[in-house]
Amino acid sequence: MAKKRVLLLGSTGSIGESTDQVVQSLAGELDLVGLAAHSSWERLLEQIRIHSPEAVALVNPEAAGKLRESLASGKDDSLRSPKIYEGEEGLVELVRETEADVLVAAISGAAGLPANIAALETGKDLALANKESLVMSGSILTRLARDKDLRILPVDSEHSAIFQSLQGSSLEEVERIILTASGGPFRQTSAEELKDVTRQDALNHPTWEMGEKITIDSATLMNKALEIIEARWLFDLPPEQIEVVVHPQSIIHSLVEYRDGSTICQLGPPDMRVPIQYALTYPRRLPLPVERVSLAELGQLTFESPDTVRFPALRLAYEVLEQGGTAATVFNASNEIAVSSFLKEEIPFLGILKVVETCLKQHNAVDNPDLESIFAADEWARLETEKILRLECKESA
Ligand code: MG
Predict the structure, then answer these.
(1) How far is the CA of 303 from the centre of ligand 1 (A)?
(2) Phi/psi of residue 183, each to 5°?
(3) How remote is the CA of residue 268 from the centroid of ligand 1, in Å?
(4) What are residue 34's phi and psi, to 5 degrees?
(5) Are residues 300 and 166 in the same domain?
(6) How remote is the CA of residue 160 from the centroid of ligand 1, in Å?
(7) pLDDT tens across 272-323, in order?
């Protein structure tokens, strides 16, 4: 059987590195034919040596220049030089011009959307880790996939768990799906204490090691809020059938409850290689050397309801779904700006959701948006959030 041709965007990030490992351990099955990173050209060069891809892209043109120089300097005689693309447009060109079966979308944030659309337009399945693109334009991506008869395979661990628990059943048989949430580092922090938590506290996630943006999103529960919207699109379910339960051990990755009262779930170690590999080898299950779950050793798994007062993100997710149209685009974009402001220590932790909620209130959602209105709403939300942030800073000064 021919190897599956894989394109990987975001190859030097957390999901990208895990994908790299999965591909190396399944070298007889998978071939990494294209790689893209933002600016970590030295790490990309190492990945080129391992996988000899046909093409690579670096979003940062300066980094692309350095990679070109290094490859031309001749130290890597044995290496077939890949075609090198650069810039935001380069990312999309790489996707359009490289023949592949599947794109692993592991760029975080709205920046990943144009490449994901290009992948579907050129006949590639999407293995989607970039939940933001589905949140901001779920109707467009899912319609495109349906029209082209392509798959959007979840890489997000919760959605992979639901996808796995749905095998052999049909959606009409589903009563509800239940996303599990670790609760993040502040699960037991009081509302009063939350006022003073620092960037460092928020970056210290109890069970998952991930990139900075998603780690902050896990601390605010915004990550779960985005995942509710992601699930709505991936599984085409109304918001009333999507629920969240806090499960601090992150062993059960999500559950599907059926109309006959049975609940099916997927358990596994908190290791992203599991959902990544399942997305790449679906519907087959192949060997993977990850830690095994020992229930006896764990002793107990615990569950609790999420607190939507301390963590308003979940409440907002349902409001956003209720509003529809471009509301989710604004929700996502405003959060991206607010998180980067928090990471720069300009606003307090509780300021993140406060800013996002203010921005949402100012937005007039556009129904059935086309791509242009989505990008317009995204840009509006970024500028509006910056405006709100400047006002906040003035007030607290
Ligand atoms: Mg997740």
Answers:
(1) 17
(2) 95, -15
(3) 13
(4) -150, 145
(5) yes
(6) 9
(7) 999 999 999 999 999 999 999 999 999 999 999 999 999 999 999 999 999 9
